[in-house]
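Annotators were shown the component list below and the corresponding predicted structure, then asked to write short factual statements about the assembly.
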Amino acid sequence: MDHAPAPPAPGRPTTGSVVLALDDVSKNFGAVAALRGARLELRTGEAHALVGENGAGKSTLVKILAGVHGPDSGRLLLDGREVTLDNPAAARAAGIAVIYQEPTLFPDLSVAENIFMGRQPLTGGRRIDRKELASRCRALFDRLGVRLDPDRPARGLSIADQQMVEIAKALSFDARVLVMDEPTAALSGVEVERLFTVARSLRAGGAAVLFISHRFDEVFALCDRITVMRDGQWVSTDPTADLTVDQVVRRMVGREVASLFPKIDVEPGEVVLEVRGLTRLGVFADVSFDVRAGEIVALAGLVGAGRSEVVRAVFGVDAYDSGSVRVSGADLRKGSPAAAMAAGIALVPEDRRQQGLVMELSVERNATLTRRWKLARFGLLSARGERATAEEWAARMHVKAGKLSDPVSTLSGGNQQKVVLAKWLSTDPRVLIVDEPTRGIDVGTKAEVHRLLSQLASDGMAVVMVSSELPEVLGMADRVLVMHEGRLVDDIPRSRADESAVMLAATGQGGTTAVAS
Amino acid sequence: MSAAGTKAPSPAPVDQAPEHTGSRGATLVQRLVVVRELGIFAALLLLVLVTVIANPRFLSGQNMRDLLLSASILTVLAAGQTIVIVTRNVDLSVGSVLGLSAYASGTLLANAPGTPVIVVILAGMVVGALCGVLNGAIVAIAKVPSLVVTLGTLYAFRGLDSLWASSSDRLQINAADLPASFKSLGGARLLGIPVLFLIAAAVVLLVGFYLRNYRSGRELYGIGSDPAAARLSGIPVGRRVLVAFAVNGALAGLAGVLYAARFQTLDATAGTGLELNVVAAAVVGGVAIFGGSGSVYGAALGALLLTTIGTSLPQLGLNPFWRDAAVGALILAAIVLDRTLSLRLARRLRGRNLRGS
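Structure shown to annotators:
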């Protein structure tokens, strides 16, 4: 190791040359535009923050830098020269190391092998030199100040330890550009501090660090410049010293509320769903809330805050460790979706392809799946009964399908979602839980789904809506419950709910910063 | 570039070393991994012990040699299968590949009796490797699950074998058609140990050495452990899987030649149904069916155990029909053990990944 240059004074201007730049990059996944003219410029010796809401395109941008996705248009410049990174190995060879949001370790292999996979030190005979492997691994861990056994398998490591292994891996590349996609989400204060020490020393050594985080305190403590993204587009890049948290939040969310169907005002009725102290170790803790008849309650928060996990536990798909769920005053047995359905809860899951629909079955079969016992006579399903029920619901929901006997997989995303809704609504639920009801759906269908949810609430149904789309949350919800890292941190009534309030609570800043709207 | 080439300095050593996290888990896991192979070994010893008590002649030199000889072919196949299974794939076509290679080497020797044994072995391995490349190419390039691909080629290769046998003038190749030099391989001994078994042992050691000590060998485990992570790490997943199938095919080809040398009567049905024994040997030997873990030594012990069950049950006075039931019980026991192990680790993992709760 050569000698360390003195760390520069904080707040120094970034004068390094541009090492990596993204110029007007776009990327589409099917009909969804993940990036539309994204821009980014990383200089040597700087820590650069990339911030934006869920779905702003940060992770797609990271994957383009990592060589996982190729851009549809736009240029990637390394030292001013255009480069193509068509696979992860190419990105690595170009000196770009990435720490992903979710650790990507091989559970069966040892920690040391995970770090040096494909780059293990070799003996003369091209064999892996295990002693050298372990000692290099130890040297990295010493640098990071972690004490892990290089020979233990990665399986069973805590998320924080896995993340430290990822960091050690990135460090071992001697990368010129280190990309960290929310690396601190699972780390404790000491570990974060240690990570920052490493990031600062890399920066001082001339590397560029791209830091993606929802934690503004960390962004402001570490980074020299901040780039804000929104809806796949570049919004601004400014020196951190010129920005405040409020300004950044406003730039992240600042867009006009799209044409949304506003919720019909309903006088809420009695409490239908009572959740008390719901805890699943390591996933969410002490979650309590009520939902009244006629009310739409939104569950907001960042990806990974534990929202879907909470509703899955309420519905009984997942178990929970303590707490209780009551429906209309009666205790609900835990871990039993059948009991939840009998009590009148319906869950429209987040991933309709995986959890909501049987893609190969026909529209009518899917729509009547939840009611097959009611439609059956002597244990046999009547095709006519199925068809009649399906037709009734298809009409009520405006499902656009060629024929009801066509497989569900032939429908558009929006119409698939309507089939899932029909499937659950036909059970006549008292509590409807919808998880990301409009993800990947075109604007027109979105409005229809919103109209429908509003209609159901005004008919007296209690609706719980998990959503990552702020406009949807603000447009639809009577109350917004905000989760942050597994805990319910705020309960914002419609009158006080605005984008900044929700965003601040979701990023763990709730109550500490006053935002004028 | 100003400072890009400079290495990052090491940061100031952090205050004090944190608590040594996870070391307890490591020792537990390591113990279980060792126990995993020791367990099969113990089961094997127990079986031999019980059989010897019932019938002391079980330990006789001839009986031991027969046992090792019977286990050789299954061991070679299990070693090859391990390479494929660790990548989270499976090759069900090995029985048919063995049949094809056995028939090919028999035909070669019947038509050219002077062919040196080593050439016959290489020819058989080439036939097997070609079959393996076909399997691997469909799996890696067309991205079809290997279970389906090799189920298809199981029938296709067998069909090819039958077609070849029925269209040639020899529907069956007999010992009389084979040269003495080749036939002697089947019963040959070196220092009292059957040569076939020595070949199998060499294969196991070579494959084990490769899987443990070479980068590409470790990458095979990586692919099976987490295919998505393997891609993100820049491992050439398709190429590695293709090579794994090719090597497994070549070893099945080798097994075919050994089969020809041992049984000396060859028709198009040689090796029928062997594939499930092979997968069973690997699974009983601790090779995880979903890839990423297990060793070729375990698989070899599994092959030895399955063979020993087959020969010891009659000596214990039990109906050989019990063999299948015993093998089934062993597979279930192996799976339950693996599942328990991973569940215990998963529970260990939970509870630490949410801070402040």
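Statements collected:
1. Strands of chain B lie at 189-190, 193-194.
2. The radius of gyration of chain B is 23 Å.
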